[in-house]
Amino acid sequence: xxxxxxxxxxxxxxxxxxxxxxxxxxxxxxxxxxxxxxxxxxxxxxxxxxxxxxxxxxxxxxxxxxxxxxxxxxxxxxxxxxxxxxxxxxxxxxxxxxxxxxxxxxxxxxxxxxxxxxxxxxxxxxxxxxxxxxxxxxxxxxxxxxxxxxxxxxxxxxxxxxxxxxxxxxxxxxxxxxxxxxxxxxxxxxxxxxxxxxxxxxxxxxxxxxxxxxxxxxxxxxxxxxxxxxxxxxxxxxxxxxxxxxxxxxxxxxxxxxxxxxxxxxxxxxxxxxxxxxxxxxxxxxxxxxxxxxxxxxxxxxxxxxxxxxxxxxxxxxxxxxxxxxxxxxxxxxxxxxxx
Length: 340
Prior knowledge:
Elements: E1 2-10, H1 14-28, E2 33-38, H2 45-52, E3 57-60, H3 66-75, E4 80-86, E5 90-91, H4 97-106, E6 110-119, E7 134-136, E8 142-144, E9 147-148, E10 151-152, E11 163-164, E12 172-176, H5 177-182, H6 195-205, E13 209-220, H7 231-248, H8 251-276, H9 279-295, H10 300-308, H11 323-329
Parallel strand pairs: 1-2, 1-4, 2-3, 6-13
Antiparallel strand pairs: 4-12, 5-13, 6-12, 7-8, 9-10, 11-13
Helix pairs in contact: 1-2, 6-7, 7-8, 7-9, 8-9
């Protein structure tokens, strides 16, 4: 069994792989085996990899399983102590693996960690997808050290201390294989979006720690290539976030939080329509609410299993304030200004 497998999930990402895989190989081959798991791409990804990167191990999946189940299918074929789930649009840096591996080797109570994510377009700014460690508020809204909603901070070293967090970004997630499979891996039904937050929350419920290691840093394209408004992304984010809350919230909070979210989600839908004139996202939020209601029963067994594994209800990385109130009413736009 190898110690570390870096696994890049790809779907029609030949250009991204050509641009950023060289840095992964240059700075990782001494410490890890690099895999590309291909979700049945229809571009020239496989031919390009075989021609230009023969040292990369290929896993060819028979169809596009999405992010979550694609990783599950690929990781079932790999035996390693640690997995590192890495997006294809990330440029890594010299010795990026060392601080994270040393941390996990030294602390058996840590299940997973992430590096600091910076923007490839503005290397002195955080990147939206994970910044310097992820948290969540009492109503299920995720945020990061360095990013709250659409406000992304510049990196001035203000979050360079290592810290426990509620979730680590799926763009660069180092996780023990034992922990990954003990909680069932990523939830393949999510397809994409919120799946890493859901995974990390299930680990935190078992008192397994999640840590951000800013001594390791990488550069991420991320949202720089995505349209700001994407109805499918909106649909998946709302549906999956509600599903994650249903699975993971403690019993005494579930009904109250879900009532609040009913009002807030429909308020968000109408705000999107009236203020932004965005009919696509308006419809996507309504579809997400309906989809969650229809498939909620499919997660009843998951909820029972997760709640039965609970060690303690209160986790300091899940903040018990309302992020919406802090951001829009109190005007607190950065992590350092939020209440403790």
